[in-house]
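Whether sequence alone determines local backbone shape is best considered at the level of individual chains. When preparing material for the folding task, we compiled for one chain both its residues and its backbone structure tokens. The sequence in question and its structure tokens are set out directly beneath this paragraph.
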Amino acid sequence: MESTPEPEDGRELYALLHLSPDASGEEIRRAYRQYAQIYHPDKYQDPQMKDVATENFQRIRDAYEILSDENKRQIYDIYGMEGLNSGLELGPKLNKPEEIKEQLERLKRRKEEEKFLAHARPTGSIIANFSVPQYLDGYGIMRGMGMSSEVQLPVSKKNTVVVGGNLVVNGTDGTGAASAVLRHQLSSVASVEFMATAGLRSLISVQTFRQISPHSTATSGLALSLRDGSINLSNAWTRQLSDNIVGNIQLALGTDSSISVGWQKKDEKNSAAGDVKLGTNYFGASAHYTRYFSTKSHGRVAGRVGSTALDFEIGGGRRISEFSTVRMIYNIGIQNISILELDTVINKVGMIKWESIVIGGEVEGVSWRFELHRAGQKLVIPVLLSTDFNALLATSVFAIPSTLYFLLQTYFVKPYCLKREKQKELEKMESLSSQLTEARRAAKKAQKLLEPVSNRKKNRQLEDDGLVITKALYGNRKKVKESSESNELNDDVASQVLDVTIPLNFLVSEAGQLKLHEGIKKSGIMGFYDPCPGDPKLLLVEYTFHGQKYKVMVDDYAALLIPQDIHQI
């Protein structure tokens, strides 16, 4: 049995009025009148029945108002309820479906642009650099501080303005810089950036990006220093070497010429990267490896060696909420480049790297670094514990906090997180169960209002020896097949299967036929509901016609026409 492809909207309004998507205006009016006679609230005196009728009558009337309006119906046919609820409106009356679709696409793009332009994306970092040895020597504990901020302001779909700045204080020295970038998307594979920076190294620059093949990209930049007139060129090439490995080469020509070769590898559980850099005044190599223990926690090992640095770090992090992550990193080594010098090097190349400026700093000894990442914001706190490279001290400084951290994780944080996850999962299941229970109750109430007319139609068919639905089940494919041989539904089956004998008898025509239209999800039929969202569903129908027994099963979106001889048992 072949399954019919499932449309996105399920054509629920057509199912509700038991109509074909090609139904005429007269067929829509006739279906509405039929259901309105049954569900009109004035027909019922009992308060509960009146409430049920009011709720279902409103559904019928809403469906009729949409399907009887030519423009609304065409919007619904193209975009479903999402198109009607998104606030899209048509101007002059358009007759052709192509014109309707073109107008809707245009209005949708305009709304997407308005939404796009309404969102500026700010990012920022703050570093507070502490030194315990400096404090013990009688000086302040704060060794330096830096902050940076950047805001991306889309001005159109192809143009973005980026405004940023940073301030850095290191001991008695300080500096700052401000920059503005205009990024223009030339095409789907190319873009260009114009940048101006004022500060320690005032410069103007231009940078182009282009995807030169499905697996390769190239970036070229030109920077002009406004202080000494020096010109710096930068080029970078990136190549996708395999599904999860990327290689890159970077070349800088100018006052500090250099070349670097690097690679990155990332998969679901691991991430690694490394590079080697050679310059006119320095050389170095670095590498890092990150292991993702779960979707919430990871460990990291990194190291650098070269003429300006020799250090090793190990640590880890954990996601504490949807947008927040904390990290603890232990570092031991020597790094002779200061924050101010790092600022100079980066500006000479003409590529502002705010994160590098902020996190960079003089490291001589043993330190811990604490980080908090929240959305696009970062708080970084490096704490220099000792400038002494004593092996016992270095081991103790690493072992004691790490042990405390793992004990805390094992006996407090992890059990608490597991408890929260189980609680959230339980709440989610309870919410879904509550929604399904309410939907089942609403379907049963709708069936109760259909029952009198359904029984009259059934009795009329019995008198004429016509079409009578004796058993009809809708729900989980597997459970429906299991229950097809049984006359009773056990609790396990009943929760995923709905008896729809009453609504199907109601839909039998005076001529003794039942027709369900192709491409329309059956859970939208009045008196139906979806008892197992996301699972494949099946409709089982057993019926009698001219004294003979018949049986048929159809998929959720498949058409059904009975009686037919091929269904005879």
Q: What stands out?
A: The chain has three domains: 10-84, 119-388, 437-560. The chain has twelve helices and 23 strands. The CA atoms of residues 201 and 347 lie 6 Å apart.
